[in-house]
Amino acid sequence: MKHDSIHHTLSTHFAAAVAEVAGTAPSEIDPAVRPANDPKFGDYQCNVAMALAKRLKSKPRDVAEQIVTAVTPRLGEMVSKLEIAGPGFINIHLADDFLKDYLGEIPAPPNSPPSQGGARGGSDPAFAPLSADFDRLGLPPVDAPERVVVEYSQPNIAKQMHVGHLRSTIIGDVFARVLAFEGHEVIRQNHIGDWGTQFGRVILAIWHIYVAEERGEPEYVEQKHTELEQAKKDSPDSVRSVLEGIRQQQEEDLRKDVIAEEQGDDKFEVFLQKVLDSGEARELLTLERIESAYRFVNLVEELARGFPSLVVPNPRREPPWRLSEVSRLLTPMLQKGGEKNKPERLAWEYARLISLTNCRELYERLGVLLTDDDIRGESAYEEDLPGIVNELRQKLATGVSGRVAKEPWAAVRDDDEAVCVFLWDENGEPQFKTKEGDQLPLIIQKSDGAFLYATTDLAAIRFRLKDLRFPSGVGAQRVIYVTDARQKLHFQMWMATARAAGWIDDAHRVEHVTFGSVMGTDRRPLKTREGGTIKLSALLDEAEQRALELLNSRDEGTEGRGDEVAADKEAIARAVGVAAVKYADLRNDRNSDYVFEWGKMISFQGNTAPYMMYAYARIRSIYRKAAERFGSPDVYAPEVAIRVTEPAERTLALRLARLREAIDAVATDLLPHTLCTYLYDLASDFMKFYETCPVLGAADEATRLSRMRLCDLTARSLKLGLGLLGIDVLERM
């Protein structure tokens, strides 16, 4: 038997039967087969009769009877009973022998004895679910694999990853894992924010740190930032006074820089090159200091907009720079590149390097699959952006050429010297409007020539669909973007533009997968006590500490827990802490906000990672005890048969048989919480089974080996499912 999902098999047979009754093709039928909510109504239900009855102008129960007659020969010995209930529901009862055979066909773990499990998953960077030594529990790849791009995480350069990056990173990682397990060709993409107007501020921030150190005032940036914050509370005159001092210092520092440059001694450039080449002085330019200096530059420019007369004379005798615009004028220097603007480029390279180092450490700590090879940020499309604008100008010159009536359309026009894409729906109404009701265009190039996020996203989708190389061919067939819901309008606009340009067509699935916010117990976005953004590293630190406290409290009052206690409790706490944070996020519907509560996520009770991990470890302890008492049993020997004589055995067996459909649901619907729910139900069903069905104390050897096999299948299913969520299991806890 091909180990397909039971739901898919039932749906296929019922679709063929309904097609026979309705006189249509099976491909046009949704048979509406669903798992039954209550065991008394069977294992599955087919609810298509009511809708089909209207079409056939017949009674629902009569239609249901026709469907049962047509489907019974197709199902064979798969079901023990089909019964019609209510107005036309068809209750499906699977045969016990079918369940036993279905589970019995699951092979032993590859290259691994049952007592150890066989799944490679979790945080393994070599995650290769189609390899021979990966424990797939006999589940085959899909028949028609696709070329898929999953874009997730997307941190910004010169900023530490914070709690806002958590959801995109771990949700996207689940998609990459599940789709790879299904057999699709998956390319992960980390579209980092490493280009754009903000990098003038990054360059200026690094320069401020450097010149302050050269002057012997290493705390200058922090001091002036504090003075500005205080001046804001005092008066506009106080703000102007502090800004004037900053302006004077900046003018003097720039003058010295230019003099040194004219003498052939560009100290800033030499310093940056050393930092990049040898790592010298990196303790001066830590990511924390760069981020702090960036906030300082941002505050200076924000406040200086209120004082346009504050200017910094340009030492090169060009027009003076307004204090509020210095960073904006540095950005074109970065974008032009070349030897003349080398310091700007070096500063950008260093900010990118140290930021990605920080990201890499957090990815490894979180156990996500993203590596440096997956990074393709905004800067990768730098040279493509002028061509993107030109191609859109040509394709959407009038918005009419080649347009079919009653279809959405677009036109590229210049508006206030900016290049804009205007979009209309099939009725000729603007697709997007401002709050005031005016048409809202997508800006793809600003009046000063700068490109925007939309331009980069358009370049990225064009590359991924037309030029990105996969093992089986060129161009993705499915692209999944994982970002928070606040970016919904941005994605709608540039995707509509890409469709209008013909880059996205009916052969492509381009999906924007959104998620809600992480909320504090006050139902507001999660912040520090001081109101700041919580750094992701600090969140994981606290998670690990709380996990250690949980383990210690569990073991208080005992002299030891035998083989349930691993030698390194801190290592267990690290695994449990990170798993708790990830699982608490993934178990919630990604479309909703969720409240971050330590007490609920780090607990051995309820739908939590510690509970799931403990369930796995408990099963493994059964095997260790069995080995001590009976020797290592081979529960996958040909003579060992699975029995489902007790209700708890059958409940567990049915849950185990539904693993594939839980995984399929995530691949299709992109809702990780469905897999979490399945795993929690599986763990709960196992606990009930273990309480009511003695394993090691079974009445006879055949029953004991059958139940041990059910235990092992449960452990392997938990390990595989948690691995697809990016969570490692522990053999002992």
Describe what this molecule looks like in 3D:
The protein has 733 residues and is α/β, with parallel strands linked by helices. It has four domains: 6-94, Arginyl tRNA synthetase N-terminal domain (Gyrase A, domain 2, 2-Layer Sandwich), CATH 3.30.1360; 199-336, no CATH class; 378-515, Rossmann fold; 536-724, Isoleucyl-tRNA Synthetase, Domain 1 (Orthogonal Bundle), CATH 1.10.730. The chain has helices at residues 6-22, 49-56, 60-75, 96-104, 166-182, 199-214, 220-234, 236-262, 267-278, 287-304, 326-336, 342-366, 385-395, 453-466, 488-500, 536-555, 569-586, 598-601, 609-630, 647-657, 659-669, 673-692, 701-724; strands spanning 33-35, 44-46, 79-85, 89-94, 147-151, 185-189, 311-312, 321-322, 409-415, 418-424, 442-445, 469-470, 473-474, 478-484, 509-515, 518-519, 594-595. The protein has a four-stranded antiparallel beta sheet. The chain has a four-stranded parallel beta sheet with strand order 6-5-14-15, sandwiched between helices. Helix 16 packs across helix 17. The longest helix has 27 residues, at 236-262. The radius of gyration is 31 Å and the shape is globular. The two termini are 37 Å apart. Residues 113-126 have low confidence and may be disordered.
What spatial order of strands do you see in the largest sheet? 1-2-4-3
Let me know the average pLDDT. Answer: 89
Total number of domains? 4
Total count of helical runs of at least 4 residues: 23
Strand segment count: 17
Which CATH top level class of the largest domain fits? Mainly Alpha
Major β-sheet, in short? 4 strands, antiparallel
